[in-house]
Design a protein that fits this description.
This protein has 66 residues and is mainly α. The protein has helices spanning 5-23, 28-34, 40-51, 55-62.
Length: 66
């Protein structure tokens, strides 16, 4: 895939978490848990690094586009 397994897994988790957040069915803590995070701070940090937005900012930016 042209990337390390760790990077590939992170991409999968972040794409899935973005979809779950935009679905409106789960809060951020639930999304983190569904994506395999035991530590919500780690989820926030990785989400922010990946999207350059917090989960709340991500929802506000993309919710109206779906």
């Amino acid at each position: 895939f042209g990337m390390s397994p760790k990077t590939y897994l992170l991409n999968l988790k972040m794409n899935y978490s973005g979809d779950l957040l935009l679905s409106g069915l789960y809060n951020t803590t639930q999304v983190a848990e569904l994506c395999g995070y035991d530590n919500i701070s780690l989820f926030y940090r990785q989400f922010k690094n990946y999207y350059n937005l917090t989960p709340t900012e991500y929802i506000k930016k993309y919710k109206s586009k779906k």
